[in-house]
């Protein structure tokens, strides 16, 4: 029997530069993700034949999550977008720890904060260049436990 994938099996990681090199950071509480690869058509039409060839191949990604205290990835990407910087993002298969890393131009950062709802964040980006295959041995931790749900023991009077 084949093992089917669920949404939580595919995550996105940002590679953040620092003083001691680059570090993979996992955007906390990822809720969705999408990768789209498309090819433009080049039409050749003569009196003898009609052909369709590949034109430009492009890839875009988008993913979102819930705003969480301590998350480094989403604030880093917002700052990079404002500074017009490219970001290295990896789409990772959690089952195999293999992924595809690319340098992306960030197209949008969206924060939705309706009253009574969790604050949701989303990123949309377009690949700039080539994809590199990567295998990780250590995957960054996800979001920590929600401390707001923990209540201290209160003595009963």
Describe the model.
- With 157 residues, this protein is mainly beta.
- Helix content is 6%, strand content 52%.
- It is built from one helix and eight strands, in the order ββββαββββ.
- It has one helix spanning 73-82, and strands spanning 10-18, 21-25, 30-45, 50-66, 87-93, 98-112, 120-127, 132-135.
- Strands 1, 2, 3, 4, 5, 6, 7 and 8 form an eight-stranded antiparallel β-sheet that branches.
- A hairpin with a 4-residue loop joins β5 (87-93) and β6 (98-112).
- The mean pLDDT is 91.
Question: Nutshell version of this structure?
Answer:
This protein has one helix and eight strands. It has one helix at residues 73-82; strands spanning 10-18, 21-25, 30-45, 50-66, 87-93, 98-112, 120-127, 132-135. The chain starts with 9 loop residues before the first strand and ends in a 22-residue tail after the last strand.
Q: Layout of SSEs?
A:
Blueprint: E1 10-18, E2 21-25, E3 30-45, E4 50-66, H1 73-82, E5 87-93, E6 98-112, E7 120-127, E8 132-135
Antiparallel strand pairs: 1-2, 1-5, 3-4, 4-7, 5-6, 6-7, 6-8
Work out the helix count. Answer: 1
C-alpha Rg (nearest Å): 20 Å
Largest sheet properties: 8 strands, antiparallel
3D shape: globular
Topology pattern, helix = H, strand = E:
EEEEHEEEE
The stretches of 5 or more residues where confidence is low (pLDDT under 50) are none
Proportion of helical residues: under 10%
Structural class: mainly beta
Give the tally of β-strands: 8
Residue fraction in strands? over 45%
Whole-number mean pLDDT: 91
CA distance, first residue to last residue: 58 Å
């Amino acid at each position: 029997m084949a093992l089917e994938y669920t949404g939580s099996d595919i995550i996105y990681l940002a590679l953040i530069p620092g003083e001691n090199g680059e570090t993979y950071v996992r955007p906390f509480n990822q809720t969705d993700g999408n990768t789209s690869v498309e090819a433009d058509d080049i039409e050749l039409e003569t009196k003898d034949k009609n052909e369709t060839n590949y034109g430009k191949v492009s890839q875009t990604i988008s993913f979102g999550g819930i705003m969480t205290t301590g998350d480094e990835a989403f604030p880093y990407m917002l700052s990079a977008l404002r500074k017009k910087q490219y970001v290295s993002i990896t789409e990772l298969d959690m089952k195999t720890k293999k992924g595809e890393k690319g340098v992306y131009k960030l197209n949008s950062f969206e924060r939705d904060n309706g009253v009574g709802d969790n604050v949701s964040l989303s990123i949309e980006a377009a690949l700039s260049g080539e994809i590199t295959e990567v295998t990780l041995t250590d995957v960054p931790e996800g979001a920590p436990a929600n401390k707001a749900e923990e209540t201290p023991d209160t003595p009963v009077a």
